Fold this protein.
Amino acid sequence: MTSVIEVSHLTKRFRDTVALDDVTFALEGDTIYGLLGRNGAGKTTLMSIVTAQSFATTGKVSVFGEAPYENARVLNRVCFVRDDQAYPSSATALHAFRIARLCFPNWDQALADRLVTDFRLPLKTNIKKLSRGQRSAVGAIIGVASRAEVTFFDEPYLGLDAVARQAFYDRLLEDYAEHPRTIVLSSHLIDEVANILERVIVLDNGRVIMNDAADDLRNRAVVITGDSAAVAAFTAGREVIHRQNLGNVTAVTVLGGMSPQDRAALAANNLEVSPVTLQQLVVRTTQDAPRSTAAA
Amino acid sequence: MIDEGKSLFLQIAERVEDSIVDGSLTEESQAPSTNELAAFYRINPATALKGINLLVDKGVLYKQRGVGMFVTSGARAALLAERRAAFADTYLEPLMAEARKLGLNAEDLAALIGERFNERIKQ
């Protein structure tokens, strides 16, 4: 598979803060990515620069092999749905969709109409007067119906109720199956999107700390629970990312898969092993608690 | 419905195997497509494809160009044999671990199993 976007040694500074710190990665064609990380990790900044809405301090961005700035050949193949998209003061959703239709050559009006029904979106109300969820729906519809070769969604679910979020994921997946393309979902609701992601990129403090196949991350860490002394003995020398005590019972999150020998040792010592969800893994690896080894 | 900690594509392959084992997906009939599996389990189509490919490599499914995936003749018998072989490890080991904790020995277990079996037959 070939890369559609390549980012190398990208750094972005705002006065004293470093929003992106030497970021390098590539996005492949026809893949759904999760772009995860805490608030302020640099996700929105990264998406803005890649879509030519903001400038890098240093580093290089290439989209379909070209520099994206003021480059129409590239920009109408890329769609960035911002969570805080600004619209002209008197614009309605209908206006926004008409503009999108002109911008994006693959726009599917029938799909947009169906999504309007799914989201129960009023078309003739001024966007400024819509609720937060309805404004998110406008962006979500543009993102899906534009069918751009690369689409970025920045927290597309803000204010959407559970029914609307499910409709969004289902329609996105359905349309992706028929029309594969590259989709980047920036989300804090990790559990909701975990199963539809093929790859996961995690940003923390402006750096890429994970860039892996989602399936590999499912086996990246486990929680080991049991008698504190037995847990300490088993986890000695392993990389512990979280620890919790309840009386004589300790629950420890360790990185690394469990070999059959490990499983046998765990069973022999009456220790319980439970899987760590993608959301828990991201929480544990991006929280500020200092890392420690079991021996410490 | 989806179990954390186990590769998703393996789980998808197991679900399809389950339907073959329980007879809801018969031999020589068409298996669900990658996109149908993706929509039903709400997973990435690439993951569903990986699961399907695993079953093709295993000889459980075969591809008919331009039509789709079909269940191989003899797949059910092969899966039953495989599952019977794995039965002790998958089901008896955890059962015995709990039995040991409770102080039940092999005879106690055998008696309990016999009792339950007979109850089921009466129903």
